[in-house]
Amino acid sequence: MADWRLRRAGEGDAPALSLVAGASFLETFAGILAGPDIVTHCAAKSSTAAFAAWLADDRCALTLAETNAGHAPIGYAVVTPPDLPVDTDDRDLELRRIYALSRFHGGGLGAALMADAIEGARERGAERLLLGVYGGNTRAHRFYERQGFTIIGTRRFLVGATWHDDFIYGRSL
């Protein structure tokens, strides 16, 4: 049995989401991206205010993964209207974020977060789920491809002061 649970994030969860977002981004990209860029990116994109804005927007769905014991945040997913440089319509949603702390990799948490995001997108009437991923994150590429996503485009993505090449993936629902 898993030692974690998923639940829909609510208004009071912005601090927990911000904490796990910053920690998981740092864990994922330390030694790959420049440290100052990681700090700048997390301060802007993973702030409590950023998560509070998503939580206040009824077009967005946020899922929080927590440990069963103590309910510590260990992962999360964010589904929003798309903001990607590919053709989209009102039947598309974007998996804007999906992260888990590395200690919990390999135990089904990522797949559970993905299944929850897909189900939530379907419930919102989406027919396609999109996402962007850093071109050098081969672990993430493999994960998304196992989940049925295929590359449909590219983009340049700013982290701190540095531009990076990303791939855009899509999956029919």
From TrEMBL:
It comes from the Bacteria. The keyword Methyltransferase does not apply. SUPFAM superfamilies: Acyl-CoA N-acyltransferases (Nat) (SSF55729). One of its GO terms (molecular function) is acyltransferase activity, transferring groups other than amino-acyl groups. PANTHER family: AMINOALKYLPHOSPHONATE N-ACETYLTRANSFERASE-RELATED-RELATED. GO terms for cellular component: ribosome. Residues 4-173 form the N-acetyltransferase domain. Keywords: Acyltransferase, Ribonucleoprotein, Ribosomal protein, Transferase. Gene3D superfamilies: 3.40.630.30. It comes from Sphingomonas jinjuensis. The lineage of its organism: Bacteria, Pseudomonadati, Pseudomonadota, Alphaproteobacteria, Sphingomonadales. This is Ribosomal protein S18 acetylase RimI-like enzyme.
